[in-house]
Amino acid sequence: MERYIPVIGLGIAVFTLIFLVLRTRVHALLAMLIAAVIAGISGGLTAANTIDIMTKGFGSTLGSIGIVIGLGVMMGRVLEVSGAAEQIAYSFIKWLGKKREEWALAITGYIVSIPIFVDSAFVILYPLAKALAKKGKRNLLTLGVALAGGLIVTHSAVPPTPGPLGVAAIFGVDIGTMMLAGMVLAVPCVIGIVFYAKWLAVKYPEFQPIDETAATEDLKEIQQRYMEEKVNKPLPGLFLSLMPIIVPITLIFIKAINGLLLSTETFFGQENNLYFQAFDFLGEPVIALAISVLLAVYTLMPKASKHEVMDRLEEGLQAAGIILLVTGAGGALGAVLRESGTGTILAQHIANLPLIPVLIPFIIATLVRLIQGSATVAMITAASISAPIISQIPGINMLVAAQAAAMGSLFFSYFNDSLFWVVNRMIGIKDVKQQMIVWSMSTTIVWVIGLCGVIILNLVL
């Protein structure tokens, strides 16, 4: 019986965590720390040992990603306020032409949500979707859901968004490979949600806006009027708008590819070559995102004063503060489970179950998401609980496990998720059943496609 005390203790810790977040006014940060204490003491650690391990786990997790999260949100804030996100949307709409606006908005969401928080990005871009719906007599649900769907997928799967970045750190996964896997897995998810968004136009044709004056306007007129309403300044060019996003991703990818090349016979032993040394430095996420922030500041806000730039960057950091703390608390919980041996005990039992072990973080993320709503908290919690367990099971690919935690957090967005209200209120949906069909089912479809992607990725890797 004593052998199972740590497992029972972990169950109590997880129950306490969920209860505190769901039923009390205790914040997720404190709830995770309390759960870590329960798991540590029940796992055989002394109180002093538990606190020491929690502190080290918190510090090591933030030590690897804290700066990257900070730089990522600073860059994202500049993209928000400069109009770069709108420019990307307009450009895709022009390229894809009439009657393909939903694809243009979904692709925009896919790109823009990599650095910008999903709620903010939807608020910024939704007026454009509304204007396009009036101009082209398109169903507003189709355009709104396509935009929100593109945003939510990369927000949940691709660093430097804080959630997947924290998951990568907890699982010990290279950020470059996490980005690449997330961007690949996100593609079928976005395609699936666009087709669902098109079906919504058939189910709810009443969301077809009728505005005869808008129907005669062209895209340029809509763009100009919208920007005059929002802020009286011109949009940056497309190249400058995309550069702060593409440059860091490219540098990080090149470093990841170079790592693969150096493991081959052809390039073996060439680590000190100037090319490999240069991109090893430039491809470090901290350096790549620092370059991105500089590019964003000097190309997207060239005429802004020093004080205005500082204010914008600090606004981004304020939004990141609580996410950093929650991520660090997740690292603390994970460290306690590793050191107490609870993870090893559970791993031995799970290895014998008729279940793909890599799906454990997916299942945990799904449950936590359903219970408390936040996708970021769901994936961080799932990573914290599952990483110490599945790392003990031979043959587990930690990259697949990390993406499993990220994809599991997409399940059934509803009342306890802020984006549920942002999407439904801005589109103007008041009926509860319709709200769930429009948005809760959209995220669930993405969740199913993400699960299939994770299973396929596990078979490949």
Automatic annotation (TrEMBL):
Identify the species of origin.
Photorhabdus khanii NC19
The entry's protein name is Gluconate transporter
GO MF annotation list? gluconate transmembrane transporter activity
Pfam families registered for this protein in UniProt: GntP_permease
How is this protein annotated for GO cellular component? Answer: plasma membrane
The record's section on InterPro entries has: Glcn_transporter
Keywords of the record: Membrane, Transmembrane, Transmembrane helix
This protein's record includes keyword Transmembrane: yes
The protein's matches in PANTHER family, at most eight in alphabetical order, are given as: GNT FAMILY GLUCONATE TRANSPORTER, PERMEASE
Q: Which residue ranges does UniProt annotate as crossing the membrane?
A: 5-22, 28-48, 60-79, 103-128, 140-158, 178-197, 235-254, 274-298, 319-337, 349-368, 375-394, 400-424, 436-460
Q: Does the keyword Amino-acid biosynthesis apply?
A: no
